[in-house]
Amino acid sequence: MKKIIALVMALMMALSCFAVASAEEATSIAVCLASEPDTLDPALNSAVDGATMLAHLFSGLATWGQDADGKLVIVPECATELTAPVFNDDGSATYTYTLVDGLTWSDGKALVASDFVYAWKRAASTALGADYGYMFEVIKGYPDNLAVEATDDKTIVVTLANNVNYWNELLAFPTYFPVREDVVASEAWATEAATYVCNGPYTMSSWTHNSVITLAKNPNYFKADSVTMDTIECYLSDDANNMLANYKNGNWLLIDDVPTSEIATLKKDYPTEFVVAGQIGTYYVCWNVNQNLLPADSTLTGVEAEVANAEIRNALSLLLDRNYIVEEIGQAGQVPASSFVAMGLTDADGSEFYKNTGVSDAFVGYYDVSVDAYMTNWEAAIETLKKYYTFDEATYMFTNVPTMEYLYNTSDGHKAIGEYIQSALAGVGINMTLTNQEWNTFLNTRKNGDYYVARNGWLADYNDPICFLDMWTSASGNNDVQYGKGAHTELKMYDLDLTAYGLDVKVEDGTWAETYDVLIAAIKSCTDNTARYGMMHIAEDMLMATGCITPLYFYTDIYMIDDSVQGFFSNPLGYKYFMNTTVAK
Amino acid sequence: MSSKMMFYILKRVLLALMTIWIVITVTFFVMHAVPGNPFAGEKALTAEAQAALEAKYGLDKPLFQQYTTYLTDIVTRFDFGPSMTQRGRMVIDVIMDGMKTSAKLGLIAACSAALLGITLGAVAALRRNSILDKVIMVITTAFVSMPSFIMGSFLLIIFSVKLGWLPANGTTAQGLVLPVITLMLYPMAYITRLTRSSMLDVLGQDYIRTARAKGVSGKKIIFGHALKNSLIPVITYFGPMLAFIVTGSMVVENIFAVPGVGRAFISSITNRDYTMILGTTIFLASLIVIMNLVSDLLYKVVDPRIEFD
Description:
The structure holds two protein chains of two kinds.
Chain A: H1 2-18, E1 28-34, H2 48-57, E2 62-66, E3 72-76, E4 86-87, E5 93-98, H3 113-124, E6 148-152, E7 155-160, H4 167-171, H5 181-184, E8 202-208, E9 212-217, E10 231-236, H6 240-248, E11 254-255, H7 263-269, E12 274-287, H8 302-318, H9 322-330, E13 335-336, H10 374-386, E14 391-392, E15 397-398, E16 404-409, H11 412-426, E17 432-437, H12 439-447, E18 453-459, H13 466-469, E19 494-497, E20 506-510, H14 512-524, H15 529-546, E21 549-561, E22 565-566, E23 569-570, E24 576-577, E25 582-583
Parallel strand pairs in A: 1-10, 1-11, 16-17, 16-18
Antiparallel strand pairs in A: 2-3, 4-5, 5-7, 6-7, 8-9, 9-10, 11-21, 12-18, 12-21, 13-21, 14-15, 19-20, 22-25, 23-24
Helix pairs in contact in A: 8-10, 14-15
Chain B: H1 3-33, H2 47-56, H3 63-77, H4 91-126, H5 131-145, H6 148-162, H7 177-203, H8 206-213, H9 218-230, H10 232-247, H11 250-255, H12 261-271, H13 274-302
Helix pairs in contact in B: 1-13, 4-5, 4-7, 4-10, 4-12, 5-7, 6-7, 7-9, 7-10, 10-13, 12-13
């Protein structure tokens, strides 16, 4: 027996030797954002975790920073200043930027203006097929003939088809980061540390695939003195439980994901470390515009049927208790949504766009989503639905609503929301079946319009409502609702009047293509900011009137960060910044 | 090596190649029949960009032509092509990267499982019906019935989160301790039970009794006769087990964030990374086929009575 005890003790001692040193050195920080990024080529990346790493590896003409009050601002980076545009006769806007002195690549070669020009043209090109190629849409000549040139080694001249408010923000976006032609000639350049050449605060010192990417302070960075953190270790894991285990045992000081089931406990146990940050995005339900919701014996067809369907969809939307969804299911500080353009996007005057939307002064958005309003909404919805369906007053149930199928991609969170919607509708006799599909199949089904009702979500890429609106044009690849497609193509039922904005556009009873598509085109070519935002409100009004978009909540970004980390910040797109952090030992 | 054995090996290798060819063919066509594509995302590409990418990876060609091109590239140049979602990386590199870890993990787990399993099984058989035997049987029953994701999470919580002795991610050498134990427990328990019952069977054979009657020492009976002969079922199990551990450790890799080949396999399917799906499938199928062949050949070494036909 003694021998066994001795053996066990010896084993425990041996195991304890493996124990990891408890505290991180103040000169390095270990974090986990997500699993292995598909790419760290700034032009090809479209993931938030990839963007965070790229923001440390590269410097664009501008960058996100904090002012003295800690407020997030876009500040010049490689450009000496973020200049005002010169307006041309055709309404286009030309910007001229001068690069700061002493810019070099991480391999020591000088960085010149033509590197930016090359990078932008490459990222926008059809041939590259980058997910974010469309971020260059605002530049004249997009996609394959961008109006950008280097007049000398230090000057970049770029012409925008029309000026946009978010241009400076685009300059800080990873797709706009510079790359050097000879470096990216081999597509494999961005897959390992040895061939990775960048110009930002950090260089990639190692990349052990699926394991860890280590970023080390770049001595060639022109503002190297301002970087306080020497090394950032980005561990790669796609399992939220694993991330949490590593966070709890002190190995990782920031994790960008937590298991949904743990949220309530974490909020309680880590009140200062569990962070809920704003994120510009909307979680919503989308209805296929070509699916008929009317009872089988309805005689309505064509435009009349669609008018009725729109009214029904809007009524069904009122049956949902968004406060229940965010508090009992989401549990991460999400905000109940009553409009599609997300919270966090600004209007022409700098106020919040979503607060200026809607149909009433009594509440924000297209319907009142306050806790108190739920019963009123519910009763109004029942009254509307009674116009189209048989209602049994005894049971308080509708008896002839066709069965609907709700499609979602496999995930516990989406499932829980689907089940809630199902039960909310079942309460008034409406049957909804739930179907889940694996992510890639789901995307395909939804895009092709082979569904009845589906979950959906959209995150902004930059601070402009247009990124929530231009996706609904007939030809857009993201038009999941199928506006202007199939039977909806022919329906002449929409009005558009832009004469108040000095445009010769007045359509009555037009198709979706004749109205919404025209409106989006007008917004994109509009040079007057106030008019532009005014028209964007009209676009959202049009969308919401169709009832095909049922917003549920505005997204939040949840992450955990150890109390010992100082100087950290994140931006509304969810990018995390570690260059100015310090870690208390 | 006898010519009979040579012929047997040749036959098995040809069969193996045929199996792999069938695996490739079925995977290829099933994979393309599933909806979705490698370039799909929440935000759709423009039609032009989608077309440019399809042309770049040859997805614009007729399906059968894609199939023949793929097969030709593998047979003539051993070229599995580039990954379609991890731009710039070759499929073979991704697999080899993952294999470095998966193989290390699998080999350590398999060897520990075999060593411990055989020892415990033999001890249990020799001490049949003793307390020790019963304890070993109860523990192994528990390990055989407990799925690896439960065992993994359990070990993770105890040794990593509560005690903080071992890291929770398998990126370092220490980090592999917990995944190895998790992976090892099931096969170890299985081998223990296999060895025990096989050994009990052998110990009851006439030749053991004869050996005892002739006064052969206990040690020699156990190691020279009983153990060796009771290992045949263990060897049958060992080959496929090794392949299973190396290829089937996806759950464990996920729990402990181990950068193995299993993760590449799973994510390739989710991403519709066609070349990667095929590459990993071929690789894993080959591994299983080879392991089966090796374990068949090992029979002969252990039991010369076995004839190849």
